[in-house]
Amino acid sequence: MNDVIELLKKHRSIRKYKPEPIPQQELEQILLAGQAASTSSNIQAYSVIAVTDPERKRKFAELAGNQQQIVESPVFLVWCADLNKIHIATNLHEDVELQQNVELFLLGTIDATLAAQNATIAAESLGYGMVYIGGIRNNPQGVTDLLELPPLVYPVFGMCVGIPDQEPDIRPRLPLAAIYHQEVYKKDGLEQEINAYDETTRVYYATRKGGGKGGEQESKWSREMLRRFKANRLREHLHDFLTGQGFRLR
Ligand SMILES: Cc1cc2nc3c(=O)[nH]c(=O)nc-3n(C[C@H](O)[C@H](O)[C@H](O)COP(=O)(O)O)c2cc1C
């Protein structure tokens, strides 16, 4: 093993932070590391917006379903897929409309995600903790208004970053055999792997320190998946929101 792999395997989301700010120079190093991530055809179709103003963080926390960690974290980063920059670049030469489809939407979303995860690793290597906040997609229009996003930009997720003020246990993942296949997708044996993971998560929640179990969270992973996906389709408003922001999803 090496230090990078050790660091990656120590990841756990942090939801309580000390009040100390992140020095601007360190934040920029974190974001530069984010920018070093691979990007589809070098299109770099993302932007990140740092929010530190307490009142604004409070509004984002509310929009994300009262997620207090946003208020507590010294910096709240909002990672956006951004086709606006490409629109501007192409229009330096010709007055054209971007030829959009689901693929272009995905490129922006993937680019934002890769940069964010690179930034995560950089932040963790400096001793910071973080948590992604998909909750901002509960009210993407509210977030868009607060950030004054132009058309062709949408908030993919937020990210709280700060010095950890808690030490939660590392959350176990599925057995490698449940995600790793050789040559072709192995359909047999997945139930067994999931059963094994259910037992792992049951023991984890029974003995976990320093994080607390999320409110309604089920202790078995498969039951938690059932709870989440049986009755509701998630965030049904997203299609109309994205279309309104100028994305064409076809
Ligand atoms: C795209 C994305 C969105 C997430 N949104 C939230 C969120 O809104 N609130 C939260 O507390 N955690 C959020 N998380 C954190 C996950 O719950 C967490 O990563 C997962 O349970 C695994 O735990 P770990 O990060 O501690 O290993 C999000 C994670 C990802 C990747």
Describe the structure.
Helix 2 (24-35) packs across helix 6. The chain has helices at 3-9, 24-35, 54-63, 68-72, 84-91, 102-125, 140-147, 176-179, 190-207, 221-229, 238-244, and strands spanning 46-51, 75-82, 129-133, 153-162. It is globular. Helices cover 45% and strands 12% of the residues. The protein has two domains: 3-168 and 232-244, NADH Oxidase, CATH 3.40.109; 176-229, no CATH class. A four-stranded antiparallel β-sheet has the order 1-2-4-3, sandwiched between helices. With 250 residues, the protein is of the alpha+beta class.
Question: Overall pLDDT, averaged?
Answer: 95
Query: Radius of gyration, rounded?
Result: 20 Å
- Main beta-sheet annotation: 4 strands, antiparallel
Question: Helix-strand pattern, N to C?
Answer: HHEHHEHHEHEHHHH
**Largest beta sheet: strand ordering:** 1-2-4-3
Percent of residues in helical segments?
Answer: 40-55%
CATH architectural category of the largest domain: 3-Layer(aba) Sandwich
List the helices and strands and how they pair.
Blueprint (H helix, E strand, L loop, with lengths): L2 H7 L14 H12 L10 E6 L2 H10 L4 H5 L2 E8 L1 H8 L10 H24 L3 E5 L6 H8 L5 E10 L13 H4 L10 H18 L13 H9 L8 H7 L6
Antiparallel strand pairs: 1-2, 2-4, 3-4
Helix pairs in contact: 2-6
Bound molecules: flavin mononucleotide.
Tag the structure with descriptive keywords.
2 domains, alpha+beta, 250 residues, 4 strands, binds flavin mononucleotide, four-stranded antiparallel sheet, globular
Short description:
The protein is an alpha+beta fold and 250 residues long. The chain starts with a helix and ends in a 6-residue tail after the last helix. The protein has helices at residues 3-9, 24-35, 54-63, 68-72, 84-91, 102-125, 140-147, 176-179, 190-207, 221-229, 238-244, and strands spanning 46-51, 75-82, 129-133, 153-162.
